[in-house]
Amino acid sequence: MRIGVLGAGQLGQMLALSGYPLGNRFAFFDTTGSPSADIGTTLSDTSGVKLDEFLAQVDLVTYEFEHLPLALVQQVAQEKALYPGVEALRVCQNREAEKTLFDQLSIPVADYRLVSSADELAQACTELMRAGAPAVVAKSITEGYDGKGQAVLRDPEQAEEAWAQIGHARLIVEAFVSFVREVSIIAVRDQQGEVVFYPLAENNHVDGILRYSLAPLPDLSDAVQQQAESYIHKLLDALEYVGVLTLELFQQADGTLLANEMAPRVHNSGHWTQDGAISSQFENHLRAIQGLPLGSTQAIAPTCMINIIGCMGDVAAILAVEGSHLHLYGKSERAGRKLGHINLVAADIDTLLQRVNQVAALLPDAPPPAFSFVAD
Amino acid sequence: MRIGVLGAGQLGQMLALSGYPLGNRFAFFDTTGSPSADIGTTLSDTSGVKLDEFLAQVDLVTYEFEHLPLALVQQVAQEKALYPGVEALRVCQNREAEKTLFDQLSIPVADYRLVSSADELAQACTELMRAGAPAVVAKSITEGYDGKGQAVLRDPEQAEEAWAQIGHARLIVEAFVSFVREVSIIAVRDQQGEVVFYPLAENNHVDGILRYSLAPLPDLSDAVQQQAESYIHKLLDALEYVGVLTLELFQQADGTLLANEMAPRVHNSGHWTQDGAISSQFENHLRAIQGLPLGSTQAIAPTCMINIIGCMGDVAAILAVEGSHLHLYGKSERAGRKLGHINLVAADIDTLLQRVNQVAALLPDAPPPAFSFVAD
């Protein structure tokens, strides 16, 4: 089966590497002007005029990137089977639609307000802080990822400046919540509605960019795993979703979870599954969208994913660390750019954390990991 | 690093799929006129005129196929680093040179004779049968694999017919040995001479073609593993080998091993390492040839590789079997053709063997596996 991918970055390339063994071949459609996928065919076209050429090459279409023009995706869906569907993309592109869906499905989130002016932003900030929030974060309801298009406010007086800096007509303002750790759950829904779940991962972000993901968590109770599964299951069913969906959550001191945001695709916090689970998120996404049975999401061993950001580090020394797996994206060094990742596996969590520290020391500018094991 | 591969079949494609995450890109040089690798660049050229074009695209060269014109390989080695080297290829192309090396290194083999006529073949057959062999197998000293270019003789009177059928000027005649099972060991030697070994696999052949490989073996003593390691270690050092080498052996009723033949490349009996070992044979071959540290050869779980031969079977049903991993080669169905393989992993050997039988039943014309667990 020939699979078309909207987006042509490292996620697309890793999908393709997983799809070759399933007999798939790939074409990528890039709308950013800077494709990096270097396998199969890539059509780079910021205006959409090559869309027919792309569609003629493929049997079905998926996406690896959610910041796509919605009109383009709707056009694709009229011509070819598209998984996940247009509605999933629409909701995930818009924080207002996303939060509305969370509310409809009774998935708990941090307290929030929607605002359309600097005055409303100041008012929202005042209300949320009066209710106990130590600060708020304002985000444009569209676009923005990896911490872009956002501002933190610790005082309503910062509203004018934050409004100007973000520069969007509508913002969501969320109360800062006190959390012990950031976690994510990745789930896969097939064409018959069957759903499988990976174990939760703990995610360490630095400057808004993911640095480390650890899974499975040695101290996570079944109840918390099941809570996360129930939330993402409701989202998958509501969106009649097919493929991999990621839900990022905050775990609070009492063990409970608050939903943060979701991504309608394979996700950086699921890269550990390439070497740490029986079937990876990439393979399971491909199995789902082409109507094949889903593979096992069971973890093989404690695993930690470490992003390589900005510069490559000492690749040979990293490969010399027992149980290390390198995944490079074929990109050149640039500050803040994701160049690849390392998956470390070990027989037990203590050995794993030792190896993580070993590898972190080989990556320039990588802060050591700060995992927060909590008793649920 | 840009890697050139002589040969463009499934082994080359699987090397490339393992090499992308290491940052490698690939060009293939095909001398057979029927390349199947469908990743990177392929130059198909049975006369060798495109060799310069191929060499200009790559930093170093390896091979995935040993039946290459030796002159071509020598020419490559003059232009680029070639791993494994020309000498390894020369020895592995010629059964007389291979057996001579085994003898020099005191690696035990079945009794054999070299013959250059039908009369000599009859004489060799008489001698070997008088010494106790129930039958002999005659093989051309060059070419021939998967049971091609061979004949079994149970009587010296069959010599004329066998000689004519094989049609080569020089043959090796080997005594049939009584063995309990066929096994293989795969080892990797790096540029500094460090060597790592995978656990032995048991191989089931049907009509001369590999059907099943099982590893690690639940009943194999450390002593036998070490015996196999010592044999292949001597071969690797003697050939100043860099990369993956495979040695096929017979295990006799008393547990001891006799060498059968070797292959200077990644090998079908090592495909289980893709899903059953920490680092696969493909990744370790690439690490070795580009001077990177070798990855762990440790098995993750009991694993069985099942070849898909001739027809595809029910792919969806195969993927529904817990712990199954599909690896297709992008080839169309044809009798006797290797179309792909399935790696099955399980937490224990009994569960694994149940799943193997489940999958075997889904492959048309696949005989059930016949593994022979022996007490060493």
TrEMBL record, chains A, B:
Gene Ontology annotations of biological process type: 'de novo' IMP biosynthetic process
Cellular-component GO terms for this entry: cytosol
Top enzyme class: ligase
InterPro entries: ATP-grasp, ATP-grasp_carboxylate-amine, ATP_grasp_subdomain_1, PreATP-grasp_dom_sf, PurK, PurK_C, PurT/PurK_preATP-grasp, Rudment_hybrid_motif
Reaction catalysis annotation: 5-amino-1-(5-phospho-beta-D-ribosyl)imidazole + hydrogencarbonate + ATP = 5-carboxyamino-1-(5-phospho-D-ribosyl)imidazole + ADP + phosphate + 2 H(+)
Binding site residues for ATP: 95, 139, 144-150, 174-177, 182, 205, 260-261
Protein origin, superkingdom: Bacteria
UniProt EC number: 6.3.4.18
Coiled-coil boundaries: none
One Pfam family matching this protein: RS_preATP-grasp-like
Record domain ATP-grasp: where: 99-290
Subunit details: Homodimer.
Record-stated family: Belongs to the PurK/PurT family.
Described function: Catalyzes the ATP-dependent conversion of 5-aminoimidazole ribonucleotide (AIR) and HCO(3)- to N5-carboxyaminoimidazole ribonucleotide (N5-CAIR).
Name of the molecule in the record: N5-carboxyaminoimidazole ribonucleotide synthase
Species whose genome carries this gene: Nitrincola iocasae
